Amino acid sequence: MEHGKAELVLGDTSHIKPHWASPSLIQKLHERVGLKLPEDQKAHFYKRLLEEAARNRNVAMALDVCVHCGACLDACHTYQTTRDIYNSPVGRAELVRRLVKSSRVSGKLLGRLVGAERPTDEYIERIATYYYQCNECRRCGEVCPFGIDQADLTRTVRMVLYESGIAAKYIATVIDNVERTGNNLGLPPKAIAKTLEFAKDSIREEKGIDVKVKLDEPAYALLLPPSADLFTNIDTLKGYILFLNLVGVDFTFSTKMIELANFGLFMDERHMKYIGDMVVKTAAELGVKVVIAGECGHGWRAFKNYTAVELEKRGIATLHIFHLVVEAIRSGAVKLDPERNGDVVYTFQDSCNYARGGDLTEEPRFIMRHVVKNFVESPNNRERTWCCGGGGGLLTDELLKLRIEYARKWYEDVVAVGAGHVVRACAICKAQLSHTIPHLNKEYNRQVTYSGLMDLVYRALVP
Amino acid sequence: MSLIDIAIFGIGLYASLLVLIAGLVARTARWINAKRLTGLYSVSIPSGQYGSSSALKEIVKRIFTFYTLNLSDKPLLVGSLMFHWGIWIALLGHLSMVIPPETVGISKELQKTLALYVGGTSGILAFIGLLILFARRLGRRDVRAISTADDYFALLLLLVLVGLGLALTFVIKPDYMSTVSKWLRGVLAGDLSAVSYISVEGPLVKLHVALAMLFAAYVPWGKMVHPLGLFLMPTVAGRSIGSFMYSHAANLIRRITR
Question: Which residue in A17, A359, B122, B175 has the fewest CB atoms around it within 10 Å?
Fold first, then answer.
């Protein structure tokens, strides 16, 4: 079967895997964070996994405390839509538990009788396959009575895989791009400048106002959008620019680092920090007082919990653009006209990383109520939101069939509340929706549309 | 008082308690010593709430309400609530074996009545809860697929233990305050001759007690250690950061609009 075109079989997703990164790409990334490819991949993976099971509290407790109640099975869209038990939080953990078991006395003596598995190449590939089917959305952690966050296990297992030389090509490539160029897409400075010019012209045409956009210039604030906003989500970008101009924030973009997304979160914490530190360095060099994050769920989680802490240590304030929009609405600093977003019924669906670990659930709702006339909640909202299906670095063509299945849950929520438009304030969500909505609209015979939140702010803003 | 009685209800009691305590300490130490953390926490603490008091509130809420289970099937939530509330009340009642009820102002007669009606009802609750959980584990194919020997062992042991407790409470009605209670208090105080109090009891009482000791010794080694987990789970008991952002936004807007 051609790689990447795998058909989906209900109950078995063991054959669906991403393209793997080449050893040379991994070696390049390793050198950047002080790692070296091990000579014996298998032995290294086994040794490091056992180490993590003993020394990493998230892993040790995930394996020790789970009572196999199966609550996570009902919470996990990857299992609910594929029915492969190993494509589930507890099922994935079982794959790891079996390997750990083989190091214990009972496992050594009785082997598979007590569920122990030795680390063969096939078994490691099986672990890699299923751990790269996880969206790291953390809904399992939300419903687990003990808060066992299987996404933490996913991150740790992927880290050990990466150390051993195994990683998804897409994630590794994106990390390489951002670490080399300052954005995930590898856009050169000229292209960034052109996009910003285009956005300025477009705002002049649509809103009749000349906005100021700085690039690599000293300013009070650094605006950090996900680079996808420069490419596919132009209306989101225009939303940031127009809003900040109307409230009078002196801000700049930086060609050195124009990326809020942080794929290090999907592969290795060392890269997450490396990418976060690039933001810190850029902000310090520009001498800004504030860094404002744009619309990106996982990027926000990494930013809020790592990069922001580092920036604050250096006296640079950090916030999300939504914090600012909320305050501007509250203080009357901007005028919004919800009529401009029409009569469509809008639903806002939280991106996983805003709601679970990002502490950003009420701000977007506050904004929604001020920019649209008809806003309805999806049944699974806030901390219980369904993943878009593209999170965790799964946004590749070879996984599209899987992603379409994964997308059913949130799509059915949109249908259930009778919304015509779904708002997801995250670059990964938007990319996933652009790929999957056409398929689902056809299948469910609907015309659901989507956008980010700053897109709606843009339209509602009265200059 | 036979040698077997001394071995089981004398030495056995000390051994099971020792294994329980040492096992729990070892487990806790293992988790605390596992210093590496996969960072960026906070799964459940609602937006904008931070700090240790909100984490403690969340833990208490989870322990008593099982609220996170309401996304799963009904039998899991109902079975868990019935079993846990039932067993907590029953265990609370069992404290009367160690602490004389009179010391907390409960007369002997009242204790007997409470044990029969409140203890009995909670025992029934726990038993039905266990049956529901067992039936669910066997009946739901995917839950069966993730079940281990440990899961079945814990369920079966508890079923027998609670079942025997019910039979004792409603059918056999032994005079446990002058046998089991005296034995327990005596042996715990270091008096091995107190084993003679329990040796006069019938086989079902002895079996119930012996299984309880087995259960205590088993707790730290398998899934039954789970209650301890909540207090150390990084995602629940851990810290979330970033509350400073709300004031930043207000300050920035004030500064600009001044």
Answer: B175
